[in-house]
Amino acid sequence: MAINKTSAAIAVAFITGLSPMGVILTQGYMEQRQLETGEINQAVLLNHSLFTHASTWVDLIIPGLQVSEIAREFLTIKFVAFQEALESLVKNNNFELMSDAQLNQVVTRNLNDTVTNYIADARRAGIPEDFIVSFNRWHQQVVEILITSIQDNVSSIVHGSQNSKVYAILTAYDAALGATIEDVEKTLEGSVN
After folding, report:
1. Alpha-carbon span 27 to 59, nearest angstrom
2. I want to staple 102 with a disulfide (CB 3.0 to 4.6 A). Which of 21, 90, 94, 98 is the partner?
3. Rounded distance between C-alpha atoms, residue 144 and residue 26, angstroms
């Protein structure tokens, strides 16, 4: 059973006597200090706000959306797929040992594999093909922005480390997942820009 940040904060709070909010605030403060000193390690990457946001979307936001059950199921499949794939990416790679070309290849392959897998999962779950095709049409611009962001961050000389590049890439994913909800709403409305 996976433990999310909130469950971990409650457990640490019980052990230390701090409130769960105190633990979360302390964790956020420590992460901010690490970022300010340029120390971005695997723990900082795994504590990226993307993972908290994805859990919140899946557990709280998506179930409350005023959209069809198909749309909620599709969103849940997509968000869970990306959360798990990005967590696995961070856990299973030592980015600091990678060249820019290797980093680009690993991150791009993860994106491509995740998209392929979540679409296959959606089809297996009975999401209609016309919904998937329509969503992909609306969401294509977000995907293109994400791909450009990945490439720009990988080749950027601004970042002091490969982990810093991955942190920025996770931030881009966070924004892209947020835009997913709007694209599902556009899919259901059938509106045109």
Report:
1. 21
2. 98
3. 36
Query: Per the structure block, which two tokens stand in for 70?
Result: 């198909």
The pTM for the full model equals 0.77
Rounded distance between C-alpha atoms, residue 162 and residue 97, angstroms:
8
The single residue listed with the structure tokens 């922005």 is: 145
Rg of the Cα atoms in the chain? 18
Residues, the chain: 193
Instruction: Give residue for tokens 């297996």.
Output: 124
First to last CA, the chain: 43
For 69-114, how does the pLDDT look when each residue is reduced to its tens digit (9 = 90+)?
Answer: 998 999 999 999 999 999 999 999 999 999 999 999 999 999 999 9
Tokens describing residue 96: 């600091």
